[in-house]
Amino acid sequence: MHTKITGAEILVESLKKEGVKYIFGYPGGVVLNIFDVLYEHKDLHLILTRHEQGAVHAADGFARASGKTGVALVTSGPGATNTVTGIATASMDSIPMVVFSGQVPTMLIGNDAFQEADIVGITRPCTKYNFLVKDVNDLSRIIKEAFYIASTGRPGPVLIDLPKDVTVGKADFVWPELEMRSYKPTYEGNKWMISQAAQLMAKSKKPVIIAGGGVIISGAAKELKELAEHTDIPVTMTLMGLGGFPGSHKLSLGMLGMHGTYYANKAVQDSDLIIAVGMRFDDRVTGKVDAFAPHAKIVHIDIDPTSIKKNVRVDVPVVGDVKRVLTVMNKVLKEEIKEQWDEVRKAWLKQIDAWRAERPMSYTHSEEIIKPQFVVEKIYELTKGDAIITTEVGQNQMWTAQFYKFDKPRTLLTSGGLGTMGYGFPAAIGAQFAHPEKLVIDVAGDGSIQMNIQELATAVINKLPVKVAILNNRFLGMVRQWQELFFDERYSHTKLNDVVPDFVKIAEAYGAVGLRATKPSEVEPVLKEAFRIKKTVFMDFIVDWKEKVYPMVPAGAPIDQMLFEQEKKPEKKLKAVK
Amino acid sequence: MRHTISVLVENKFGVLSRISGLFSGRGYNIESLSVGETIDPQVSIMTIVTTGDDWVIEQITKQLNKLIDVIKVTDMTELDHVEREMVLLKVSPKQEHKAEVLNIAGIFRGRIVDSSQKTYTIEITGDEKKIEAFVELMRPMGIKEFVRTGKVAITREGVKKK
Ligand SMILES: Cc1cc2nc3c(=O)[nH]c(=O)nc-3n(C[C@H](O)[C@H](O)[C@H](O)COP(=O)(O)OP(=O)(O)OC[C@H]3O[C@@H](n4cnc5c(N)ncnc54)[C@H](O)[C@@H]3O)c2cc1C
Ligand SMILES: Cc1ncc(C[n+]2csc(CCOP(=O)(O)OP(=O)(O)O)c2C)c(N)n1
Ligand SMILES: [Mg+2]
């Protein structure tokens, strides 16, 4: 006979069973008893953030950096609603996470009780699944299911709503066997489809691989490299796929899409075969869908059938886990297809090199004023790519994607799908918990950093040596760029320099270190100093506000109709489509 | 094209809203939706009538399948199946039409489930064509109220793909 324990204790025991070490959270009335159980707990550490959104992004950053499921715990009502942006961010990028929210007692649900919010209703469309626990006897089973759902198949966030009476109530602690008849992800790809794909690869003259976030989620970087190298097929990546294939590899074309490289977009548009691996043909990637890769047959490997044939036509669909599918595919290619790959590819790779030479990824350096791209390049140079980079959203994010060569998976953590400003800093905090020994840098914008700047306290108190490199252009730069290009330079409400805070002083006020660079010659010393200091550091880089992200595909245009730095204004026909 | 989709789901709190939320959130049409328990009280069956081209219908079935509580999705339109819907219709015919109302109801094997001095309430079951035909005939008789259950569908034995 077990002795009965409280729901709060069951929660803690269940989390231990799941191997959880860190919970990012914020307390409040209905979760007081859970926080009490966590007080000075020796195995489970609650990391107090300064905002619930920060807690969820930190759990998300922890998950992306480690591949494990991130965990957050918040109170009911406003605590719960504050998590929504973080949950939606994780949902769009398929990040495994379990969020626990407190709830008013079951008896009061539906009565507009104090701090009641229907968080299960609110988060239904932005979670993979969510639960309202009605009986303490169901709690451990629900937690086990939640972790299973969050981390398997196409991962995603799961929310568990915990009414007060459930966490106070008592039950036996049983860690049940999982049994879910209605949820069975497909991992093995159809063998026949895989050989079809291999046959197409052998026949193709101008193939391109597009690698996406699924490669990283699946842990398939090795298999992808093997595939590309064996068949000599060039690889381009979505924003989420960066690091899934080494950015410095000779077959890498860098990122494709709206701010992708000219040569990646050219190659895709001209290709006769696309092998899409764990990516979902987002509109930032395809541009004008009807004009996307008009000559290409498309092989699409994805664990989620809904990703396939959602946005583009597909000739060979393969539903399954990237790693397993590529393992079989590599075997088929090696054993069943005799082809002198390097001979076949020569002309195609030469064509791509010509495009690369025609329009390399570049910017105009200056000796007087700091170019934001220069800061990113220097960060890459000094870290040699051995760091975890998070970004905020906007120009800072795109320059990071363009000028930092991500060679390894899980080294770029960025909000791609939702594009959440304020993501990068708390995500960096989460990543630093996952990898205490690693250098973690948030490349930030002066706008975005102010959306979760309160997390300075979290970083400082936990002695996290997180670095934040603010590309301070005194503007909501990305929006300003669109206004310059498509709205006759009418900078409606994008100018931040009326009140631009002193980021150095803010850092210092929180007990962190603040550094500033205003000239190009100061960039490297500031970065070196920041990397040397074993503390939280804000670096304020005063950069050229006029700088824009190029190349750029105007919204609604085909991806090979790009604007470049030299061309000041887009032609009329490329006007943004709203 | 119009499709009738049968969805077997876990009979859990919130399932209906997950399904309707999927349709509204992604901009798919629902023409009708009916839900009820199956023989196994832990499982419910929903019959959804929706419209869309093949591309959309394929997404709808995949998206339904993706929902954690969904056990099985069957697009009935692709199979040999029987569809039925029940309608309750209240008419208040003029005196001289009363006999005709009863007559038509009889032809359609309708049942009079309630009657008053001025009205008849008729229950009628059938496929879409039959119901439409019946309603058309009743229209001139003065329909006061009209409710329908939405379609339910079941495959015929020895199921063949159409
Ligand atoms: C300002 C801004 C600009 C942007 N510009 C660009 C741009 O120029 N280019 C660009 O590419 N993106 C850009 N993005 C990002 C873009 O919005 C999308 O987030 C991104 O393109 C999606 O990447 P993905 O297709 O790899 O999909 P993800 O969102 O990473 O989805 C992963 C896919 O892999 C599948 N998957 C998951 N796990 C597995 C598994 N184990 N096995 C198989 N499949 C799996 C999933 O089902 C899903 O289909 C931009 C974002 C912002 C905010
Ligand atoms: C929460 C949120 N609100 C608004 C936006 C729209 N938006 C996209 S980029 C951007 C500007 C970001 O400014 P900043 O952080 O300074 O970055 P910069 O582009 O200047 O590098 C805005 C407002 C967003 N992505 N997220
Ligand atoms: Mg800015």
Task: Give the uncertain stretches of chain B in residue-range form.
Answer: none
Structural class by secondary-structure content of chain A: alpha/beta
- Distance between the terminal alpha carbons of chain A, to the nearest Å? 66 Å
User: Which band does the percent of strand residues of chain A land in?
Assistant: 15-25%
Helical proportion of chain B, percent range: 25-40%
Protein model, in words:
The complex is a heterodimer of chains A (578) and B (162). By secondary structure, chain A is α/β, with parallel strands linked by helices. The model of chain A is unreliable at 570-578 (pLDDT under 50). Chain B is α+β, with helices and mostly antiparallel strands. Chain B is 30% helix and 39% strand. Chain B is elongated. The relative contact order of chain B is 0.20. Chains A and B meet through loops of A and helix 1 and helix 2 of B. The structure holds flavin-adenine dinucleotide, thiamine diphosphate and magnesium ion.
Jot down its keywords.
heterodimer, A: 578 residues, alpha/beta, 6-stranded parallel sheet, 20 strands, globular, disordered C terminus, B: 162 residues, alpha+beta, 5-stranded antiparallel sheet, 4-stranded antiparallel sheet, 4 helices, 39% strand, elongated, binds flavin-adenine dinucleotide, binds thiamine diphosphate, binds magnesium ion
